[in-house]
Structures are given as C-alpha cells and as structure tokens.
Amino acid sequence: MRKTLHEVAVECVVGDIVAQSDIDAVVNAANAELRTGGGVAGALHRAAGPGLEQECRPLAPIRPGQAVITGTHALPNRHVIHCLGPVFGVDEPADELLAACYRNTLELAEREGLRSLAFPAISTGAFGYPLHAATEIALATVLEAAPRLVFVRLIRFVLFDRAALDVHAEVLEALSGAE
Ligand code: AR6
User: Fold this and answer.
1) Neighbour count for residue 177 (Cβ, 10 Å)
2) 18-53: b or e for each residue (b if 16 or more CB lie within 10 Å)?
3) Residue 81: its H or E element
4) Relative to the CA of 161, which ligand 1 atom is closest?
5) Ligand 1 pocket, 135 CB below 6 A?
6) 3-state helix, strand, coil in the chain (%, to 5)
7) How does residue 153 score in pLDDT terms, banded at 50, 70 and 90?
8) Residue 105 has what pLDDT?
9) 163 C-alpha to ligand 1 centroid (Å)
10) Cβ 85 under 6 angstroms from ligand 1
11) With a 6 A CB cut-off, is 64 part of the ligand 1 pocket?
C-alpha cells in the first residue's frame, strides 16, 4: 500500500529490513548498547558484519527515543539509523518515546540529505508494544512531519508479516483520509 502526502510517499510492504537495497537508510530497532541481538537488530548486524558493532561502540549507550546514524558495512544501503524504542510497560511515557524515535530518525535523515528510509515496526517485537497502538503513533508521527521534509521523499514501513501489513494499511488509510 502506498499514499503520497505533501510529496512524500508512505509505503507499507511485507518484507525483510535487510533486503531494502533501493533505500538510502534502514532503521534498526536497536538495544541501548547498539549490539547485535534478536529480531531486526540481529538481522541487520548479521548482514552488516562485525564492523557495524565496532562503529556503534563509541556511540552507545543510547536512551529510549534517541536515534544515531552509522555506515552500513556489508549492507546495501548508505546508512543505518539506530533507534531505541521504549520497552512497553517500563519506559514512560511510552507513546512520546516511540514518537521521538520516528521524529529523531527523520531529523537525522534530513540533516544527511537522505531521500528514502525504511522503518521496521519499532518496539513491537521483544519490547512488547501492542501493534495497533504502535502503528498509530508511527504513522501519525511521519504524516505530521511530512509537510516539513525537504529531502526525504519515500518512507517505507517494512513489516514482517501480512497481519502487521493489514494493521498498517488500515491505520494509514484512516489517518491519510483525515488529512
Ligand atoms: N525485517 C522486518 N521486520 C522484522 C524483522 C526483519 N528482519 N525481524 C523482526 N521484525 P524487534 P523491538 C519485526 O524485536 O521490539 C532486539 O533483540 C518484528 O516482528 O526486532 O524494538 C534488540 O536487540 C517486530 O514486529 O524490536 C532489542 O533488545 C518488529 O520487527 C530489542 O529486540 C520489531 O521487533 C528491540 O525490540
């Protein structure tokens, strides 16, 4: 599914975050230490190779809501932007911290003049954020930022399964209809 608002295309697809070779920066659902782990972080670090963890070491630890940018090593993109989402039920206010992940990533991408970004559904795996609520925050935050974006023209949400895609498509339809 794809919607274009204020010249920014927002796309939702089923896929693997490590296979987004046409995208400038892929976003990592990181841990505070910026180490490899499970889920998205494990997949990105495995595909990037050990150089990514080495580059990350001096940037860690990061706080919930924070985003930092690195190179990609063996990944086919220009940058990885690492975000620490809130652990649901622990890091508060969870909604504001999750929104900050998306806002801070967009700000870094703009600063670097990047044209395209691929986000996973941050915090919805190991960190336990309910998918529907997280999707509303993610999409509302990018749609709210869209009119101010100068460089970013494609924002792709890469979802792991069809159920997550359906939730994103439903929320995107509802929010973009309300524009
Ligand atoms: N591509 C796209 N989406 C994926 C992929 C993938 N390769 N793998 C998982 N997902 P998670 P979090 C989905 O756990 O909740 C790590 O261990 C997954 O189905 O990666 O922010 C880190 O080290 C879910 O919907 O991130 C941290 O400790 C979403 O991506 C912690 O998990 C996010 O799941 C971060 O937890």
Assistant:
1) 8
2) bebeebbbbbbbbbebbebbebbbebbbebbeeebb
3) strand 79-83
4) 19
5) no
6) 40, 20, 40
7) very high
8) 98
9) 15
10) yes
11) no
User: What ipTM goes with this model?
Assistant: 0.99
Residue 44 Rama label (left phi>0; alpha psi -120 to 50; beta) = alpha
Cα(159) to centroid(ligand 1), Å: 10
The residue among 177 and 76 whose pLDDT is bigger is 76
What architecture (CATH level 2) is domain 2-178?
3-Layer(aba) Sandwich (3.40)
Residue 85's nearest CA partner among 31, 27, 43, 33 is 31
Token representation of residue 112: 């670097």
Q: How far apart are the first and last CA of the chain?
A: 17
Instruction: Give the residue, out of 26, 40, 98, 162, with the most ligand 1 atoms within 8 A of its beta carbon, to mutate for a pocket test.
Output: 40
Q: Where are the domains of the chain?
A: 2-178
Distance, CA 153 to ligand 1 centroid (Å)?
25
Q: Read off the tokens for 33.
A: 């230490």
Identify the residue whose tokens are 């046409």: 22
- According to DSSP, the β-strands at 25-29 and 79-83 are parallel
